[in-house]
């Protein structure tokens, strides 16, 4: 008996979950024609930043 109730509840929940919730007239929409060419992004060949390690001057020890 419990199994039959569980199956019935599952089927009822499944049937309501599979419905679409689109507004009226949404199925009559027309796609945009010719949206235009997308911009092309290029990546530079050199990585950003300095070409060599940055060396800071070393402070002389106080003594």
Automatic annotation (TrEMBL):
Residue segments, region Disordered: 19-63
The name this protein goes by in its record: Lipoprotein
Species, as recorded: Hyalangium minutum
Phylogenetic classification of the source organism: Bacteria, Pseudomonadati, Myxococcota, Myxococcia, Myxococcales
